[in-house]
């Protein structure tokens, strides 16, 4: 007998997935992952299929977390689209399985999950690594991730000033109008970055947009874009002067151009800081290089499904 999976739409995922629930669940999963107990968390490095002809990539992100008994896979595509495209850069679906029997129990939108969990993990990096009394937040990029990062960061922290820069100034202005609070729009990356305590890079850049010489000593950078081995968002100077943290060593060493091409060494995974086995060097300039992990999607899919079930 086959049972049909439930379908959970983007709107439902948006309603069911709350940032407050996300942070502790993601922290616990990151900590568990970094213990490298091979039966507790299983997450191979993302398999990526390049689609050269279309300037796109298809990524497969399976994960199993034993103590949560959650088995899921996210299928995500990301395309460098024309600016007038009506589709967002990332399209994603998460399949949630019954781990005991191997059947799919839910098929849900993965776009919102990707936006929210990525921003939540960056916020965890900031919580652990930003300088004390951080007052100025700077966001480079103005797309979907810029919005989700703004939402989580303003929910979790109280910055005195929030700045945004985007390649096209009108997009940065659009961003400033779309979000809830005041945002200062900058036309130059250098001016946006100088004096900032926390800098989030959420661009589709393939060459460095952020230079180390502009970054205030002791600042924290959450670097979210440049997820291909030949793509960059940060320059060598920044990668070499900062203490570098990652979500997964294997993922970062395979996929991050900022790490591979700069030759920077990885100091720790966020999970190691959460577990207390590596230090949070907040007094130094820190970079958190995020690539995204299947366990993050799996945790979210479980939260969404449990919420959905509780409302039936
Ligand atoms: N680390 C992770 O877990 C995840 C990372 N990402 C990455 O985050 C980045 C942002 O994603 P979205 O906001 O969804 O994309 P988006 O397409 O909504 O926004 C991209 C932004 O980058 C800007 N941009 C494009 N090309 C640029 C260039 N050459 N130089 C400077 N800015 C440029 C655009 O103007 C826009 O502001 C992408 O690199 C994406 O692959 C996305 C999802 C998860
Ligand atoms: O984790 C993720 O979903 C992605 N990381 C980079 C592109 C998509």
From TrEMBL:
Biological process per Gene Ontology, one example term: thyroid hormone metabolic process
Protein name (database record): Ketimine reductase mu-crystallin
Record field: transmembrane: none
Pfam families xref list: OCD_Mu_crystall
Originating species: Anguilla anguilla
Domain of life: Eukaryota
Class in the EC hierarchy, top level: oxidoreductase
Catalytic activity, reaction form: (3R)-1,4-thiomorpholine-3-carboxylate + NADP(+) = 3,4-dehydrothiomorpholine-3-carboxylate + NADPH + 2 H(+); L-proline + NAD(+) = 1-pyrroline-2-carboxylate + NADH + H(+); (S)-cystathionine ketimine + NADPH + 2 H(+) = (3R,5S)-2,3,5,6,7-pentahydro-1,4-thiazepine-3,5-dicarboxylate + NADP(+); (S)-cystathionine ketimine + NADH + 2 H(+) = (3R,5S)-2,3,5,6,7-pentahydro-1,4-thiazepine-3,5-dicarboxylate + NAD(+)
SUPFAM superfamilies: NAD(P)-binding Rossmann-fold domains (SSF51735)
UniProt subunit comment: Homodimer. Binds the thyroid hormone triiodothyronine (T3); T3 binding inhibits enzymatic activity.
Enzyme Commission code(s) on record: 1.5.1.1, 1.5.1.25
Molecular function via GO: pyrroline-2-carboxylate reductase activity; thiomorpholine-carboxylate dehydrogenase activity; thyroid hormone binding
């Amino acid at each position: 007998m086959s049972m049909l999976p439930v379908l959970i739409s983007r709107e439902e995922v948006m309603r069911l997935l709350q940032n407050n629930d996300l942070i502790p669940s993601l922290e616990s999963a990151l900590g568990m992952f970094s213990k490298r107990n091979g039966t507790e968390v299983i997450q191979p490095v993302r398999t990526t299929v390049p689609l050269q002809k279309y300037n796109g990539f298809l990524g497969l992100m399976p994960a199993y977390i034993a103590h949560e008994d959650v088995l899921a896979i996210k299928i995500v595509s990301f395309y460098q689209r024309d600016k007038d495209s009506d589709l967002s850069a990332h399209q994603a679906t998460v399949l949630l399985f019954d781990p005991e029997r191997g059947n799919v129990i839910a098929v849900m939108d993965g776009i919102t999950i990707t936006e929210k969990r990525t921003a939540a993990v960056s916020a965890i990096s900031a919580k652990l690594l930003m300088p004390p009394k951080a007052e100025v937040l700077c966001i480079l990029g103005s797309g979907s991730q810029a919005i989700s990062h703004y939402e989580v960061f303003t929910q979790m922290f109280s910055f005195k000033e929030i700045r945004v820069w985007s390649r096209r100034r009108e997009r940065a202005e659009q961003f400033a109008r779309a979000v809830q609070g005041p945002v200062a729009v900058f036309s130059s990356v250098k001016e946006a970055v100088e004096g900032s305590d926390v800098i989030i890079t959420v661009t589709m850049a393939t060459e460095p947009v952020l230079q180390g010489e502009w970054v205030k000593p002791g600042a924290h950078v959450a670097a979210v874009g440049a997820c291909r081995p030949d793509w960059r968002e940060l320059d060598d100077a920044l990668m070499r002067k900062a203490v570098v943290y990652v979500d997964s060593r294997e993922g970062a060493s395979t996929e991050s151009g900022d790490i591979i091409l700069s030759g920077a060494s990885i100091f720790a995974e966020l999970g190691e800081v959460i577990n207390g086995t590596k230090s949070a060097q907040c007094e130094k300039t820190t970079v958190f290089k995020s690539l995204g992990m299947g366990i993050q999607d799996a945790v979210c899919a479980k939260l969404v499904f449990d919420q959905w079930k509780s409302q039936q």
